[in-house]
């Protein structure tokens, strides 16, 4: 698993309810103790307009009274009565229209009890009620009561898995995947969702060829090591031969350790174990070292049966269809031949732990470091300089064009249907995919059923819409989700407040792994404590989003806040993920709390979706990004002397960070002082909050060349992490750093943060542009 850092949650919102009209800010470099000088409009205009007497009525003659005044009074009284009557009539008509708005299309909406009262003339009249709006505690309790672990056990899960048991593959675009898509479409329709539709894409995927891929040990003669059924999508096809070198997890620091041993890696076949980072990232690191091929085996496990299993994977360092990078793969689009720079261009194959152990047994070089053994006896780094042993790898994968289907259903909001939360789960899998795809799909169906029932029976009126999405081609790198994002890239970021990922929600029972946008930390903290607080032995840890997570393109490509979470066991991983043994039986053997944990995961996801669509205010804590920027500033502060030696300064970057904090404080005050019943004002404020994530996408890069433009969570030289690494390299070896590149990184980071601050303020005349 990835390096983990326990979550440091904090509660509360910043800002105090202060009323003001105009203020000036004295810039402070750190932004924390900025002096705010406030001037109330009343103070500025004290004494009234120039030239007017202070008491105007004292200098005017007394009014004359005559018969015309009485006439005017009578006419005014009549007009007021008419206006009052019209207002009352329109109010009554509006209430009646809202009452008659049927929630299920049948015209029989559930009403709250009516109240009787007596009018002035003694006639009894009846007050017409509006539809009942649930308070959040009521809604939360209703969701918890309606979600059913037994229904997951007796209905959704068996139906979902019954289609999967005994099937060797549910690969995207094949018959089994289409049958599951049809089933989900039928289920969404039966739940009476407001709309159900398909989203078609025509993508290029890779399939295994007619001949199996093979791995040989070559010494005096060729000896077949393994011919696995599994394959690595987007691997280069062909045959390569090279010296085997084991590089632990394939991390950059692992390669550095091998370099320190003075082991040349050019022309070699790199071997690494699964975990820490994605297979695509491991392969990219190997390619940088000049490797001609790569092999990966599963990490150690307490389950000896897993020694013979070979995992499926993909080697594309990116998401979506790699042959239409940055563009949607619709049938009517015709782009010139182009491919993603993230394709590996070397043959890659996965092998079993048994095969890896046999290969290590043939190697006669230096033994592995103790922390690299991974439970395999006789682990070696490479072969001796006198050895003639090599490894031969043959990959026969073939490219195929396939149509994939994403299935959507929506519950439309009653006030802002064009603003929504999206819940999604991967549908396809290589093998049965019980944990990989089945759990998330079952939870998705359960939530669609329960929330729709709450709405259609008149129990709940969501202000905003909830979209349920079933993705295809997730095994190939979130292809279905990414293509949808690319197809609607100009609108989704402005309409989607959050994406909730349901994939692999249950892989164990002792730990809870969470990946989320900082905007959702506060909301997650509250919900997790309430829902998961009963699990006293549960440990919460935060991990970064990786490329294989369907939430990653939502955050890093589209700038949409995301949350992804799941139960797992850190010291005893579920070894069958991505293999032909990912079955319901093996998943139940891993945890005897499968359905209660699925229920808990459904409740967490459901509460997030309902809270973001129920309240007047979006619970997105934009103040958290002020904390993230301050944390980054502390990391780079001590590099100021090194930067200054180049004739540069970090001050402008710090100024931009201070501007963002002041803008966040101002927006918090605007929200506190606003009229929450004013829909226009509330919507405008919510849109400013929702756009914060998108504003951290670097606007100076092409989505085609650098799709993951987020400066916190993206990939590339524009990220703050890349800037930090360059500064560290500058301190270690000044001659190894491109000064012009460093200047560009500082400039782009500064203006991206400054742009985010300006957008947060709202109107351009309120931005801080002091020099």
UniProtKB/TrEMBL annotation:
It is found in: Cell membrane; Melanosome. It holds the Pfam family TFR_dimer. It is a single-pass type II membrane protein. Residues 244-319 form the PA domain. SUPFAM superfamilies: PA domain, Transferrin receptor-like dimerisation domain, Zn-dependent exopeptidases. InterPro entries: PA_dom_sf, PA_domain, Peptidase_M28, Peptidase_M28B, TFR-like_dimer_dom, TFR-like_dimer_dom_sf, TfR1/2_PA. Residues 650-760 form the Transferrin receptor-like dimerisation domain. Stearoylated. The chain crosses the membrane at residues 70-92. GO terms for biological process: intracellular iron ion homeostasis; receptor internalization; transferrin transport. Keywords: Cell membrane, Disulfide bond, Endocytosis, Glycoprotein, Lipoprotein, Membrane, Palmitate, Phosphoprotein, Receptor, Signal-anchor, Transmembrane, Transmembrane helix. Gene3D superfamilies: 3.50.30.30, Transferrin receptor-like, dimerisation domain, Zn peptidases. Residues 406-591 form the Peptidase M28 domain. Homodimer; disulfide-linked. This is Transferrin receptor protein 1.
């Amino acid at each position: 698993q990835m390096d983990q850092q326990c979550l440091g949650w904090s509660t509360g919102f910043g800002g105090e309810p202060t009323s003001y009209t105009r203020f000036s800010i004295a810039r402070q470099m750190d932004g924390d103790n900025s002096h705010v000088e406030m001037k109330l409009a009343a103070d500025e205009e004290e004494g009234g307009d120039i030239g007017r007497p202070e008491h105007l009525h004292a200098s005017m003659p007394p009014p004359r009274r005559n018969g015309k005044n009485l006439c005017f009074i009578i006419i005014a009284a009549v007009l007021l009565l008419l206006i009052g009557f019209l207002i009352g009539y329109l109010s009554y008509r509006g209430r009646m229209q809202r009452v008659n708005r049927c929630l299920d299309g049948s015209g029989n909406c559930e009403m709250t009890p009516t109240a009787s009262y007596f009018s002035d003339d003694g006639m009894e009249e009846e007050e017409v009620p509006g539809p009942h709006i649930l308070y959040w505690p009521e809604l939360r309790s209703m969701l918890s009561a309606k979600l059913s672990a037994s229904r997951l056990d007796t209905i959704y899960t068996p139906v979902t898995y019954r289609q999967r048991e005994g099937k060797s593959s549910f690969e995207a675009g094949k018959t089994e995947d289409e049958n599951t898509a049809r089933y989900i479409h039928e289920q969404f329709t039966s739940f009476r969702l407001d709309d159900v539709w398909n989203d078609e894409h025509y993508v290029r995927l890779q399939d295994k060829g007619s001949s199996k891929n093979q791995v040989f040990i070559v010494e005096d003669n060729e000896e077949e090591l393994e011919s696995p059924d599994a394959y690595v999508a987007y691997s280069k096809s062909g045959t390569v031969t090279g010296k085997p070198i084991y590089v632990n997890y394939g991390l950059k620091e692992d390669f550095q350790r091998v370099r320190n041993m003075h082991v040349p890696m050019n022309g070699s076949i790199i071997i690494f174990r699964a975990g820490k980072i994605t297979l695509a990232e491991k392969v990219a690191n190997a390619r940088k070292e000049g490797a001609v091929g790569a092999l990966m085996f599963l990490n150690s496990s307490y389950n000896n049966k897993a020694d013979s299993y070979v995992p499926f994977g993909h080697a594309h360092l990116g998401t979506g269809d790699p042959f239409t990078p940055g563009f949607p793969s619709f049938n009517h689009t015709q782009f010139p031949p182009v491919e993603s720079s993230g394709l590996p261009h070397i043959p890659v194959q996965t092998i079993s732990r048994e095969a890896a152990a046999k290969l290590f047994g043939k190697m006669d070089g230096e033994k592995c470091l103790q922390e690299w053994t991974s439970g395999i006896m006789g682990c070696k780094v490479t072969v001796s300089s006198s050895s003639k042993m090599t490894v031969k790898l043959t990959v026969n994968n073939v490219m195929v064009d396939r149509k994939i289907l994403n299935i959507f259903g929506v519950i439309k909001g009653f006030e802002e249907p064009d603003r929504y939360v999206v819940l999604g789960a991967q549908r396809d899998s290589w093998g049965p995919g019980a944990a990989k795809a089945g759990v998330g799909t079952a939870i998705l169906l359960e939530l669609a059923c329960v929330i729709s029932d709450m709405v259609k029976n008149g129990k709940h009126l969501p202000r905003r819409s909830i979209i349920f999405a079933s993705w295809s081609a997730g095994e190939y790198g979130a292809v279905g989700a990414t293509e949808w994002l690319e197809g609607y890239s100009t609108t989704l970021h402005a309409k989607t407040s959050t994406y909730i990922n349901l994939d692999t929600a249950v892989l164990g029972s002792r730990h809870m792994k969470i990946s989320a946008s900082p905007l959702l930390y506060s909301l997650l903290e509250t919900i997790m404590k309430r829902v998961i607080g009963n699990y006293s032995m549960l440990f919460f840890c935060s991990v970064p989003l990786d490329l294989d997570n369907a939430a990653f393109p939502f955050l890093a490509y589209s700038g949409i806040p995301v949350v992804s979470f799941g139960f797992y066991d850190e010291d005893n991983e579920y070894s069958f993920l991505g293999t032909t043994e990912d079955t319901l039986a093996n998943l139940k053997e891993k945890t005897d709390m499968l359905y209660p944990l699925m229920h808990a995961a459904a409740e967490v996801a459901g509460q997030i979706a309902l809270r973001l669509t129920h309240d007047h205010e979006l619970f997105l804590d934009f103040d958290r990004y002020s904390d993230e920027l301050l944390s980054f500033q502390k990391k780079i502060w001590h590099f100021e002397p090194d930067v200054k030696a180049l004739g540069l300064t970090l001050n402008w970057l710090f100024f931009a960070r201070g501007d963002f904090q002041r803008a966040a404080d101002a927006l918090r005050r605007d929200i506190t002082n606003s009229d929450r019943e004013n829909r226009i004002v509330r919507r405008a404020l919510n849109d400013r909050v929702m756009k914060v994530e998108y504003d951290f996408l670097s606007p100076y890069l092409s989505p085609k060349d650098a799709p993951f433009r987020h400066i916190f969570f993206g990939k590339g030289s524009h990220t703050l992490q890349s800037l930090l690494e360059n500064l560290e390299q500058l301190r270690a070896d000044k001659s190894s750093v491109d000064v012009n590149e460093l200047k560009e990184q500082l400039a782009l980071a500064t203006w991206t943060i400054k742009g985010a601050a300006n957008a947060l303020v709202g109107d351009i005349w309120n931005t801080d542009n002091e020099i």
